[in-house]
Amino acid sequence: MASQASLLLLKQLKDLCKNPVDGFSAGLVDETNIFEWSVTIIGPPDTLYDGGFFNAIMSFPSNYPNSPPSVKFTSEIWHPNVYPDGRVCISILHPPGDDPNGYELASERWTPVHTVESIVLSIISMLSSPNDESPANVEAAKEWRDRREEFKKKVSRCVRKSQEML
Question: Where along the chain do its domains lie?
Fold first, then answer.
């Protein structure tokens, strides 16, 4: 019997196929596994990431939507809110409830109303405006704040690399 999570993910996949959203494309990594999606995010216009095509894997837990998926870029990306290994760090992907470190309000963290679409749109927004207050990549955050030209060069290199992978 199909789980509630797999039925919900199937519905979201069908919705995205019927009504594609500007800025990204999404589909299954493997047709037999509804819990692992491949996402390509197009670098948002008028940002440093403009023109890039960044691939990521979105992995959903079996108790989705009660728990958030994890998102990990497989394309090289330089950003304060992306760990060096590619994992995305944004509030809505953090488990629901109070933040044990006190940085985020419970209202900023995961809630079951989020969809694949709202998650990816949040990541696109993150690319447009990095949060260097609680960085996942401390070195990228320091560069973003103190050495903006070096930061831009690294991002530009990532954009070029992503275009070559097409």
Answer: 4-164
